[in-house]
Amino acid sequence: MKIFITVLLLACATIAGCSGNAGKTEKTGEKEATSTTETEEKTGTLELTEDQMQTVGIETGLVGQRNLTSVVKANGQLAVPPQNKADISLLSGGTIGKISVLEGQQVRRGQLLATINNQDMIKIQQDYLTAKNSLIYVQQEFDRQSQLKEAGAGTGKSYQSAAATLNTEQARITAYESQLRQLGIAPGRINNGNIVSSFPVVSPINGTVGNITANLGAFVQPGTSIMEVVDNSSIHCDLTVFEKDLMRVKVGQKVNFQLTNQDNQNIIGVINGINKSFTNESKGVIVHAVIHNAQNKNLIPGMYVTALISTGSELTPAVPVDAVVRAEGKSFIFVVAGQEKDTEGKVQFKFKKAEVITGVAELGYVQIKPVDELSPDTKVVLKGAFYLQSKATGGGEEE
């Protein structure tokens, strides 16, 4: 009986040992199957055979030197010249009796914008009419003294007094007429007895009505702006160029704009002015650029832009546009990290990502500047980078 129990225990131990070895073998196989993938993920390298490269159309070569346009990158915003923007303010205070326009409305120079009621206007017109009537008497007295002087019957003192009084009255009337014209009232209309208690506010330029800051019936103090009129036909761009790039920027250079908040819409312009002083403490100088065909692009002052100022051509490292891929908001190229033969004697090429900063793109090539310096003999992928990017992300969607 004891012998039977001993044999049974030995058999169980043997079976358990075999089962354990089988489990270890299975786990080892799984590790071997995933070791290549884990290694690629950790090292960031991809491996392809020469046949695979030919199948998907991957081509490699050295980073070339291309004669591309050199640019200076600058940021700024759209603006209009001072003569194309008018703040509509009042020379004399009063109550707004009528507003004849709406925000966004197109107006012409001299068009009525609003009407201001002011009772003091009546006194100005009365004083003007009084001065006109007084001038008649003063003129007659001056003519009488002139005749007496010519006849030798008058005195020189009386003639001089009459002449001085006439000049004073004429100056007073001229001042009243100028004041009335500034308020938009024709002096000839008052001469006919048409006294008014309000004066018009007209647009000084052609343009679009901007923000209206006053309401009907509001009392407005002299010098207070009630609205603005902007003429966008001469809109331009004010760019900030920093000291390190200032010597490369000159009047007449071409500028490519991108509207930051308008789907990066492209606009062409030309530098037409460079300030000669720094703005605040930023060590930046404002550069002015006119925009071609600005009136047909629905541009508004205050829009933010990113600009590339063309400063000439220079020899620069460049690769085909298709050689650069985007991922996680950065730009990359693939470099050949090495090659080796597998067990079957086939050549395996290793590829690795290298982050680059891209510059100007022209004629199918894009300027690149590697973040980590590459040796001159480093080969990169010139064609087929998209396939490697898809393989690196497991076939996921490329950003």
UniProtKB/TrEMBL annotation:
InterPro entries: MdtA-like_b-barrel (IPR058626), MdtA-like_BSH (IPR058625), MFP_Cation_Efflux (IPR051909), RND_pump_MFP (IPR006143)
Listed GO CC annotations: cell envelope; membrane
Molecular function, one GO term: transmembrane transporter activity
Multidrug resistance protein MdtA-like barrel-sandwich hybrid domain location: 86-230
Domain of life: Bacteria
Region (Disordered): 21-41
Residues spanning the signal sequence: 1-24
Ranges annotated as biased composition (Basic and acidic residues): 24-41
GO BP annotations listed: copper ion export; plasma membrane copper ion transport
Domain (Multidrug resistance protein MdtA-like beta-barrel) ranges: 235-312
Record keywords, A-Z: Signal, Transport
Family of the protein in this entry: Belongs to the membrane fusion protein (MFP) (TC 8.A.1) family.
Protein name: Efflux RND transporter periplasmic adaptor subunit
Organism, as annotated: Mucilaginibacter hurinus
